Every structure is written in structure tokens, then in C-alpha cells.
Amino acid sequence: MTTVIILLLVAVIVIFAVKDIRINLVTRPTFSMFKKVLPPLSQTEREAMEAGDVWWDGELFSGNPDWQKLHRFPKPELSEKERAFMGEQVETLLAMLDDYQIVQKDKDLPKEVWDYLKKEGFFALIIPEKFGGREFSAIANSTIVSKIATKSLTAAVTVMVPNSLGPGELLLHYGTKEQQERWLPSLAKGDDVPCFALTGPEAGSDAGSIPDTGVVCKGMHDGEEVIGLKLNWSKRYITLAPIATVLGLAFKMYDPEGLLGDKKELGITCALIPTDHEGVQTGERHYPLNMAFMNGTTYGKDVFIPLDWIIGGEKGAGRGWRMLVECLSAGRGISLPALSTATGHLASRMTSAYATVRQQFGVSIGQFEGVQEALARIGGLTYTLEATRLMTAGAIDLKLSPSVVTAIAKYHMTEMGRTVMNDAMDIHSGKGIQVGPNNYLAHGYMGIPVSITVEGANILTRNLMIFGQGATRCHPFVLKEMEAAAMEDHDVALKEFDSLLLQHILFAGSNAGMAFVHGLTRSYFAKAPVCGATTVYYKQLSRMSRGLAFCTDVAMLVLGGELKRKEMISARLGDVLSHLYLASCVLKRYEDEGRQQADLPFVQYAVEHSLFCIGQAFDGFFKNFSNPVVNFLLKRIVFPLGNHYHRPSDELAQTMCEHMSKPGVFRDRLTHLCYVDENAGTGVMENAFLAMIDTHEDFKQLRKWQKEGTIAKNLELEGAIAAAKEKNLINETVAERMNQANELRKQAIAVDNFAPGEL
């Protein structure tokens, strides 16, 4: 038996060590199979694969993340001028906003707000100073939008759109010098308001199927005949379209007469068109879930424009899809994560306050374990949201366009925002559902599906983009192997493929072996960049990175092109990658902020939640993998001792609730973006919270006297306070303080009422 094993090992070594033997017995048949099972890529898919950058997602796919590299990424911070803008212009804007009036009555921002936004450069955050813009960083853009969103989602969306995917962003990256000089100064001053039209009735997430066309032809412009485009389009869901003065437009470009060359179909192209240009029609306004931000339609029939209106000029023809994919990072990596993070900050501060102020059965509802479970989830996810916002915007400030990372941020942060808002509504109960000037949750709750839907619907983002792009772009060998398979010279391709295949086999074998060893030893021997309470998390994440890399290789080998259509399978591997990224963001934030001891329970909750989700995703992957033998082997390699990841403990949740329910530095840091308006519901709730905390011991003693019978049990608080004073149990000063706190408490839990006919 030993001799047979030795002979087999020798045979394997010879096959792989001798190049000619390896090529004939291994590489050539594998190459043929690879070309057969290679999933066919459309032109738009190929451009999406090539666009953007691989960043930390590549490390997570490697099976062996370099955690020191994570720690070396610069900490995202605001500059002095950005902090000044936050303290002056943003605070001034927030004081001007009455969100109930905006949404429920006017259905628009007041004129003075529009004027202020334009005058103070809120629409020019990303435009360079030389063109009159603010030239702020991505983290400043994100922070400004987040802060505004805690007061008014309508105002936040209005600010975020010109600073994300739109004419400004596209001009900065791809515009000609003449286009930049023509448009950027007027956009910076607010003389022009931009919108960008991509989505149509038949083309949403599948933007490559847009039916809108631009046909190269000759036409009249400024009194002379020039070569240009005859455009036909019908777009909907376009934010700022009803008031825009300049329209960014995506369409498919054709040259049937060969006026520009031999190519008849040039592909998706983007152009910039003044909305007062002949033939441009601004259609009717949409009303997205009761939100008042401007959103609507735009149409055009046989609209002629010159070629130099194409973004990038004639050289930009057919480059639109790549432009869009790379610039979508602004929406996915800055704007939508900013809105979701705002939800977390607002919900954490107000819900922890409400849970303290609201009483049932004589005690604050924050003492009920059911409420604590939901409140801890709000706090843990808020810490994750802020961590992910910082790291993702930080990547964009590194001049990167990490398409996979921003897709992860868009999907998971909007879903976390939805979870946080649902928990906040559950705890607020009746107060949360009565719309009125003092309801700080209602409009955010209504707007949640907007974030879920835009910039690529969440279902498709999860099922197609995160793993579909991630497995190909982030894998160290797959994209190179695909490029080798596409080479026209078969011999050169085979030679290149042989080199890659050998490295790929060693890569997969290493990941399988280390995943198994880490599973047997509970990652005891895995490396970690730090000592202390978070050490175990780095080790477990490294282990799961090995498991992801190995399972991805096996899934692509067994399923081949079918993996593209097995969305439920691929999405679960995408969930593993996503939670590896989210947990990395949490650990990065904890290190950047100096390992604050008060943060540790939130870090533990966030990472343990991600590890639990990773375990659940792997379980779903194993159970539903088509080949039962492969299924069995994969599970035994990744989890040889079983899947022991669990939800964060109840004890940890209770500790978090204690931190969230105490005024002080930690609560302020956790919710630092939440705008507390002294003249609105947030101010009423915050003041009641502080008053009830200040009188906590007094009310605790009052309840004790009632329980003992010293004071009648059936008295309301006002009566009980009066009885205690009458019996000289408390003095005038204490009684007054308790009555004031109780009055604030009643104001805080009250809901808005309307007289008959007022609505």
C-alpha cells in the first residue's frame, strides 16, 4: 500500500513538474474545457469588468488578507475648510429646513433654500476651486449629505444628486477642456442645475438595453451644416429633471452612413444638452413615496445636436458605459451610504432617548429585554454603517473607483438602514406612525425604498454585481485566464494559460489546506495584526477568506458558465465577501479611533453579527450546491468541526443599551451626525431624555415609596410627586425638577393632532 501511494505521488510530481507532460495531460484539456464553460460576456459586461479598481476586496478574495495594509490606509478626516463649512453653511441650512412643510404641504424646498444651496456652493462640492467650486473630498461630500439627511431627506437628495452621478462628475473625469470651461463655472454658481437621464421604461438595472438612440447625420447648428446626432429618447425617474437646465443623456450611438468611420454601432454614449434646446421636453413630475425632491421624466424626438456635445467630444463616442460604470461609484460609494448612515445616527439617538422616556408598567421601556434586543441591533448596525461610510468614501479619496466595494456598500448599507428604521419604528410604535411636524422618523421611513431601488435595484446588486464582478475582478487569476482564453494565437494562449493554471492550482490547494487547518484549530495559529479583544476576529476573518477563495474556485470549476445563472448560489458567496468587507471596516474604524473602550461592545456585536451572517451564507451555499459529493467535501473542509458562529449574546446587547442610554461622549460620538433641532421633535425628545436621566434617582425613589405604600399606588406621576411633597419626603426644589421632567416627558411621547378639516 505504501509503495502504491509513493508511486502515485511520484506520478503527480512528474506530471506537474515536467512542462511538456503537464501541458499535454493537464493544461490542454483544461484549456479546452475552460473555453467551453467560460460564461459568455456581453460588451457591457466586459466593459463593467474592466472598469473600476480592485482594492481591499482583492485582499479578501486572496485567502490571506494583509491586515497591516488595511491599517495603513489613511484615516478619512475633514480638512479645516470642510469642517468650517459643516459648522457654518450646513448648520445654517439645517436651521432653515421645515421638513413637514416641505413634504406635506409645499412638495418642494422653499425658494430661499434653493437660493441658499446655489449661493453657498452645495451643488458644487466636487467641482474644483478653479471653476468656482468647493473641491471637497469624498468624505466631506458624504458627511454633508448625511448630516442634512438627519433633518430632511428631500434636501439631502437635492444636494447629493449634482455631486454624484451627473454632468459635473462626468465632465470632471471625461469632459474636454472646452466643455469643462463652458459648464463647470455655471454649475458651480448654481446658474445651471444638472440632471442625468439613464433609466427608461424598459431599461433599469440593465442599462445596456436602453432603447434610446443617437444616429450620426448632418444637420443645421448655429446657421451652418455640421455632422451631429439625431437623438430620440424617453427617460423616467430622473431626479432634478423637472427643474434642470442642463441634461446629461445616455443613449446608443449608431453611424449607418459611415460618416465617422467603418463602425456602424458605436455603443452607449453620453452627451450634455441644454434643456432649452429645440426638441428637448421636460415631462411630468413623479412623486416618489411622498418625498418632495424633484423627480420626473424627459423626452426628445429627432433632436439634433453637434458632435462636440458628446461628453469627451468625438473621442467620447461609444465610451459612455465605461464612464457610467466608473462614475457610479459616487452614487454607490458616497451618496446612498450617506443616507443610510444618517438613518442610523438619527435612529440611535432618538430611539435610545425614547426608550428611556417612554414608560410602561411604571418603568422605562428600555428596561424590557425585547426592546433592548432591537435597540442593540440599531446601535450595532449604526456603528457598522459609520465604519463602512468612512472606509468606502476614503477609498474614493484615494482616487480609486472600487466597483465591487461600492456595490457592497450600496446593497448592504441600504438594507441595514432599512433594518434600523424598522426597529426604530417598532420601538416608537404609535408615535412613529402619526405623521406631523414632531415625527422625526416618518419621512425617513417613507424614503427607505428609494435608496433600495436607485443606482441598481438591490436584488440585482446582490445577485449579479457583488459576486459576479467580484469573483472575476478580485480573483488573482480568473480574469487573466479569461484574457488568455480570448487570445487569437492558440499556442501563445496555451502557454500563458499553463503558467496561470499552475499558479491557480497551488493557490486553490493552499486555500483548501489552510481553511481545513484553521477549521480544526479554531484559527489558533492564524496571524493577527493586534493583540487584545479583537485578535480573534482578525483570525476568524482570515479563515473565512480562505473558505471563500476555495469555495469560489470549486464553484467556478464545477458550475462553469452556469454559475452566472445560479444567482442564489453566487449571491451567498457574495454575502460572504460582503460581510468580510463590513467587518474589516468595523475593525479599521476601531483602530483609527484609538481603540476606545466604550466602543468595544459595538465592535464585538458588529463583527460577530458579520461572522454569523457569513456562517449562514456558507450553510445556504453548501445545502443548495448541485453536486452532493462536492457539497459534502466543501463543508468538511471549511467547517470540519461544524459551524459555530452565533448571534451576538444577550449580555452584550444589554451592555450596548446601557452605553446608548447614558448622555456623554460615547453617545455623542455614536450619533454625531444627528441634527438635534431645539424647535422640532428631535429637540423635544433630547431635552426630555436629559431631564429624565437627571431625575432618574428621584423617580426611582418615588416608585419605591409607592410600592411600599408610603404613597398611594394608584396615583399618576403628578399626584405622586404632590403627595411626596406634602409628606415632606421631597422638598420644593426636587418636586419642581421632577414636575418639569415629567412635563417634558409628556411632550416627547405626544403625537401630532389636527383639527377637523385641517388636513
From TrEMBL:
Residues 472-754 form the Acyl-CoA dehydrogenase C-terminal bacterial-type domain. One of its GO terms (biological process) is fatty acid beta-oxidation using acyl-CoA dehydrogenase. It is an enzyme of class 1 (oxidoreductase). Residues 80-191 form the Acyl-CoA dehydrogenase/oxidase N-terminal domain. It holds the Pfam family ACDH_C. Keywords: FAD, Fatty acid metabolism, Flavoprotein, Lipid metabolism, Oxidoreductase. SUPFAM superfamilies: Acyl-CoA dehydrogenase C-terminal domain-like (SSF47203), Acyl-CoA dehydrogenase NM domain-like (SSF56645). It comes from the Bacteria. Residues 318-463 form the Acyl-CoA dehydrogenase/oxidase C-terminal domain. Its cofactor is FAD. GO terms for cellular component: cytoplasm. One of its GO terms (molecular function) is long-chain fatty acyl-CoA dehydrogenase activity. Its EC number is 1.3.8.7, 1.3.8.8. Pathway: Lipid metabolism; fatty acid beta-oxidation. Residues 195-293 form the Acyl-CoA oxidase/dehydrogenase middle domain. Gene3D superfamilies: Acyl-CoA dehydrogenase/oxidase, N-terminal domain, Butyryl-CoA Dehydrogenase, subunit A, domain 2, Butyryl-CoA Dehydrogenase, subunit A, domain 3. It catalyses: a long-chain 2,3-saturated fatty acyl-CoA + oxidized [electron-transfer flavoprotein] + H(+) = a long-chain (2E)-enoyl-CoA + reduced [electron-transfer flavoprotein]; a medium-chain 2,3-saturated fatty acyl-CoA + oxidized [electron-transfer flavoprotein] + H(+) = a medium-chain (2E)-enoyl-CoA + reduced [electron-transfer flavoprotein]. Belongs to the acyl-CoA dehydrogenase family. This is Acyl-coenzyme A dehydrogenase. It comes from Pseudoalteromonas gelatinilytica.
